[in-house]
Amino acid sequence: MLTTLIGRTLRVPTSTGAVGDGRAEARRLDAALVQVGFKASKELVEHVAGLRNPAAYTRTIVDAVRRLVGDDVRHNPYFKDFPHGVPDTVEFWAHCLRDALLKNVPADEIAANGVLNLLALPEYGTRRHTYEELLQAHDALIPSVKDRVTVLHLGGTEAEETRRLYLELATSSTPLNPADLELLGELAQQTNEWPVVIPVRENRAVINAARLVRGLAVRVDTVTDVLRLACRASGGDVTLVEPTRFRSFCRPERRLVMAALDEVVAENPGKLGDVRQRREAWKRLGERVHPHEYRNLPHAQDVFAVARGNKVVRSFAGRAELAFSDGDIARATEILKQAPGMLLRQVDRLLRNASEKDVPLVVDAVREAVPAVSGRVLCSLLQHLENREEPEAARVFATRHRRAWITYDTRMPLACDVVRELTAVLEDELVRRLPEVAELTVADEVRDVVLPLSGNASEDGFGVLPRGSKVRLEGDLLRFFVYWREKARSTDYDLSAVLLNGNFDHAGQVSWTNYEQGGAYYSGDLTSARDGATEFIDVPRRAVKAKFVVPQVNIFGGEGFTEVAESMFGFMSRELDQRGRPFEPSTVRARSAMRGYGNVAVPVVFERTDDAWVATWLHLYLRGTPWANRVEDNRDISRQLARGVLSRRYFTVGRLAGLMRRKTAVDGLRLHVDLTNVDQLDKLLEPMG
Fold first, then answer.
1. Which of 151, 400, 500, 516 has its CA 20 to 30 A from that of 304?
2. How many folded domains does the chain comprise?
3. Where are the alpha helices (H) located in 297-415, listed in sequence order?
């Protein structure tokens, strides 16, 4: 847990070791941290210096940050001299073929029907050098003032930091990504504390499931809350997107589940209307909780009666849908006013179908509803409206598992005057909620960071930002990489890059089928990863003519991104004369896990400017094919993804700062955003409710 706390918070819990003279170990810690792009704060150095024997403590600190940037594994590319000495693609294939013939490999083993099988060539796909030989082939990295330096701070005790992280995750105002949900589940098993407010339903379900296992009472206020906790307790999907195979619940657990259901429905029978939406899941759950055994809980039994169709209850959403199907927008608006959050999520649909006389009714309903709606929903609608005055370049949808779907924007644009009126309503409400400031300081590098309206638009890792966020990368050389380690069967991932011009037209590609393109180089194809494998692509800014570079990670065969033991994508930037190993942790700008559902990962897009690279996070996955995915087959959809995301307007830190400046100065609050711990961006949403 200590390693997790350091990596997740960039705070080092205090040691309980004996007091003594640890100054020498403190100096060694500082030197070791510099090698991986970190630095200990003054307080942390002083704390280590005051310990008698802090060697194990400092080793844990260094291991934690090395793991954070991906330096806990050996990154050994196919060509040990990379980026130098990379041969021409066809010449290399010919070399591998000659080697196979010299070794008398039977022709029918390396070719079939006149087609050469590269994977059958002994020289192909398996590196012929050790990691130590790789190190000898490269000069030491020359430090640069542009190299990343991330500060580690001293925190409280391990118990205090654990509780602090638990509360930060539990009270998050945005849905957490899968990795953070799992971490919340681990922390919830160690405490009985119930946070004062849990805004996100999935977080509530994770905590409730941990309490259920320990026999503690659960806290719910909708029937769907109970279904979510049952899914979580069964190891299923707490978001309810994927079906769950419910486990058998013991009698005390069944009693807790049924009691929670009975209390919710007894308080508000109208909540039975939510059951039909997921009636099949409720029927399966009924087989496991045996509702017939609890005749003293009639309201809980009603839930399963509705699921079976023995009791009819019309849902709130169903009444709204009937109004839409009848074309009665005024009635639909009146119904939706009873649920302000749902009303705001249906604003676009209402306006698209509204007659001229209905539009004022919708606008007035929004004006009445905004005080009762969460800040996240207000920001989401504001972002949506700013993209509706004209058709989008491409409509990019992403599921909770970050699977991408793209289509043309066939919607009629919304009237500009209506968009402006609603935008003013939303902005006024947000400004009302924001704190008043006397001094507002926002660093240039965070202005284009998108506020995390959903954790599903991001991944676990270091320096990772929500989808649409931009990061400026100093240095002439852009290098990105993929690392994977298979679990049970041979697995082949292929790093590729689609090159696009300023109009998003195809301008080439770099991959295992084309090692070099206009100055960009591929490090070589590794076809299995029992002990881990890394592939790199180098893109020198001054040499490459392409405007945009879209990396892809294609699954050629083997285990998926959610199946492998480990997988990551990251990028570095450095000057051309810095030399160094292919992987230098101090030059890593970001390292992202790859745990999405799909056979092609498209994590980021890079834009080449006159003096830098600008990275825009995508965090998207494409369905692809079951095996043999190649960049040639996916380059067009990658182009559409890049164009769709880059052309969209997002609700950024800069946008929020503009709203804050509308407040009258009274208390001297200073806004400071620290990108070394991007999870704290979520705190910017707290004042908005």
1. 400
2. 3
3. 298-308, 316-325, 329-336, 340-345, 347-353, 359-369, 375-385
Instruction: Classify strands 533-540 and 477-485 as parallel, antiparallel or unpaired.
Output: antiparallel
Per-residue pLDDT tens over the stretch 306-343: 999 898 887 777 888 889 999 999 999 999 998 899 99
497 and 615 share one domain: yes
* 666: pLDDT strictly greater than 50: no
pLDDT of residue 143: 85
Number of neighbouring beta carbons within 10 Å of residue 609? 11
Measured distance CA(208)–CA(474) in Å, rounded = 46
Identify the burial level of 573 via C-beta atoms within 10 angstroms of its C-beta, where 0-12 means exposed, 13-18 middle and 19 or more buried: buried
Contact 422, 344 (CB under 8 A): no
Q: How far is CA 65 from CA 62, 240, 668, in A?
A: 5, 35, 35
For 224, counting Cβ atoms within 10 Å of its Cβ (0-12 exposed, 13-18 middle, 19+ buried), the class is: buried
Same domain, 414 and 461: no
Considering the domain architecture, whether residues 657 and 638 belong to the same structural domain is answered as no
- Report d(CA 510, CA 552) in Å as an integer: 10
Which residues make Cβ contacts (< 8 Å) with residue 661, sequence separation at least 6? 437, 440
Q: Is the pLDDT assigned to residue 212 strictly greater than 50?
A: yes
Residue 274: inside a domain: no
Model confidence at 673, in pLDDT bands (50, 70, 90)? low
CA-CA distance, 423 to 419, in Å (whole number)?
A: 6
Task: Assign 679 a pLDDT band (cuts: 50, 70, 90).
Answer: low
Task: At 197, list the tokens.
Answer: 């407010």
Residues 487 and 593 in one domain: yes
Instruction: Specify if 535 maps to a domain.
Output: yes
Q: Using alpha carbons, select from 678, 461, 483 the residue that is nearest to residue 7.
A: 461
How far apart are alpha carbons 449 and 429 in whole angstroms? 22
Phi, psi of 213 (to 5 degrees): -60, -35
- Note whether 519 and 664 are same-domain residues: no
Question: What is the distance between the alpha carbons of residues 368 and 391, in angstroms, rounded to a whole number?
Answer: 29
- Are 547 and 682 within one domain? no
Q: Are 187 and 165 a contacting pair, CB within 8 Å?
A: yes
Alpha helix positions (H), 103-143: 107-110, 131-136
Residues 509 and 606 in one domain: yes
Domain with 510, as residue range(s), is: 455-646
Residues 343/349, Cβ–Cβ less than 8 Å: no
Domain match, 681 and 617 both: no
Give me 95's structure tokens. Answer: 């070399």
